[in-house]
Amino acid sequence: MAKVHNGVCVYTINSPNNLHGTYANERGSDAGVPFTEMAVRTTIPSADPIEGTYNCSWYESGTQINGVLNITKRNPQNVYDLIWTIAGQPTPAYLGVGYILNSQLAVHYKSV
User: Fold this and answer.
1) What is the Cβ-side half-sphere exposure of residue 65, based on CA atoms within 13 angstroms?
2) pTM
3) Is the dihedral of CA 37, 59, 107, 83 positive or negative?
4) Environment class of residue 8 by beta-carbon count within 10 Å: exposed (0-12), middle (13-18) or buried (19+)?
5) pLDDT tens for residues 53-73?
6) Is the dihedral of CA 83, 76, 24, 21 positive or negative?
């Protein structure tokens, strides 16, 4: 069984269709090192400012990873569920829970 890696990401909500994140996790030699993620929304299922599907990219061990980020609103209190799937993979790589704080989305996530 693979080790579960936990991490945090803080996204700045740049526009209704663009998130810019800074994240760190406990994975390997990069543990605790801050990296960035970009996400551009491709579907807008509601009037919510961040809910939807995004094309995203981030780095793991110096390699760019491309994938899809799905964000769904869990409740009216601005709590969101996040699912990251790496391009070409059939199952999610990470699951997270996010909270709106002013113009940012703070997320705790884990590998699956």
Assistant:
1) 18
2) 0.92
3) positive
4) middle
5) 999 999 877 889 999 999 999
6) positive
